[in-house]
Amino acid sequence: MSARPEGPVLIVEADRERACALADQLVADGFGVEVARTSEHARILARARAPEVALLGDLDAPRGALTLLEEIRRAPPGCAPWDRAMPTIVLGAKGHELEMLRAFEAGADDFLTRACGYLELRARVRALLRRVRNSGDATRWLAVESLVIDSHAHLATLHGRELMLRRMEFDLLIHLAREPSRVFTRDQLLRGVWGYRSGGSTRTVDSHASRLRRKLEVDQTRRWVINVWGVGYRLI
Hints:
alpha/beta
């Protein structure tokens, strides 16, 4: 009996040759794959078979893949075709820092350049799938002073006010809140939050930590997400 395919992985890429080459490699490694060349085609495929992770490449849209990514992140809960918490990797053209930051601000879970090697991309996809599948194992409720987190409802409140957090900001917050005074190194956070077994850019951690800190700054009674210079981050 053959093993159940991983995924499905939704590839959204206007370049047919690039999309087919990536799909062939993923299928050879046991992934279920769907390929869309337009945003509308992606919606049709997602409605027919909900993807577990999406790879967003080049699209003929005003802001390329970011337009579709923002649509996914704005989707109402439980409303087809999109699960707004679906893990996504943006495949950028050149990997400039501004391009990467714009992808994260739009809601990307990860960012890679199109020139990256296939083995690295496969590792990132599997890391996202592991994180999603293991997310139900954590304790549901966490509380740190006035901060309360419901991991099942993807809800965090501070002084009773809901925090509007993107998926990776929320996952980073949960990880820090489990041991709020512990200093986690950037490599530990890449493994524990992003699921990387090795490698990964520490800029990913820094950009998410910075945005999470800004959203917690509504609390003037204490500092949150403290950068311990040369080491990493702790929650309080």
